[in-house]
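Continuing the series of single-chain predictions for the mutant panel. This is the parent chain; the variants come on the following pages.
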Amino acid sequence: MFDRRFVKYFDWGLLGLTFLIGILGLVTLYSAVTSATPTPQKTLYFKQMIWYCAGMTGMVLSFLVNYKSLYRWAPAIYVVCILLLIYVLIMGKYVGGARRWLVLGPISIQPSELVKIAVIISLARYYSKFSDTRGFTLRELFTPLILTAIPFILIVKQPDLGTAMVVVLIAGFMTVFVKIERRSFLCIVSACTITGPLVWFLLKGYQKKRILTFINPDRDPLGAGYHIIQSKIAIGSGMIFGKGYLKGTQNALSFLPEQHTDFIFSVLAEEWGFVGSVVMLFLFLMLIIWGLNIAYRCRDPFGTILAVGITAMMFWQIFINIGMAMGLMPIVGVTLPFISYGGSSIVSIMVCVGLLMSISMRRFLFE
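Parent structure:
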């Protein structure tokens, strides 16, 4: 039977904030794909609108379903997503030197976007089940390590270093939140400090080149450094109030690469300037604070950790994408939530918003 308290506790603020950011994303994407010359890509805009409709459907289904049921289904969700990652390595669509997409008739999906949600749910289940006040020991952290390492390795194999890095950052944030036993924490920090430099020798040539370009973009201004240089030019040329909507020259003259995905923040900054960028960052900040507030108010450990994981996913994607555009992070191909073009990205982030709503509107069950 429907409980009227669901309506009373429904999170209208989160819904409104999501729609505001979504509208900003569609407006920015329209400029990014229609202003570019000589071949505007208006079809991408209409595809994005369709994906937004699919994402809203996923969001509605997510907040209608009791998030507590995910506790029981977490192992099955994780296994299915891992099988999809394995399948995409074998039968996935090969584009731009990577196998990241599964073609299902007229649409393509990126399983790595779904895996981020699966990892969050699985870790929330484990940590809520075994947490105690003294913190997790190294032995108790072995299972979360495996849950994170398997998708990380499979995503790196595609290769997609950016998404793999986001998975690790999400897991790390959730682990620190649930507390690590002090001695175990010192051991982990020491191990990372010692083995960190060895990772350099495991990177592929193009990955090393991206890091070196990040340190000094001018070492190859027409090659590996081109993306960062053009992005910084676009952001700087926007100045205080921007050049005006649909009037960005870096985008219009196609100097800005991947303007509808990785560098869509540069399009917004060029057209709306510092003021527009601050407005967007403020909306994202409100979204992060809202997610953390939902986690704080929740009285269920599983719901609290789940909300923290979802908020961490949003934060790190925002941080990395804007950092890439400003030259503060290496280019690793991470999309900007709600703004960048990408069907799987939109659907997954909207499902996450639905889960936050589900946690928020069911808090009365524990009050």
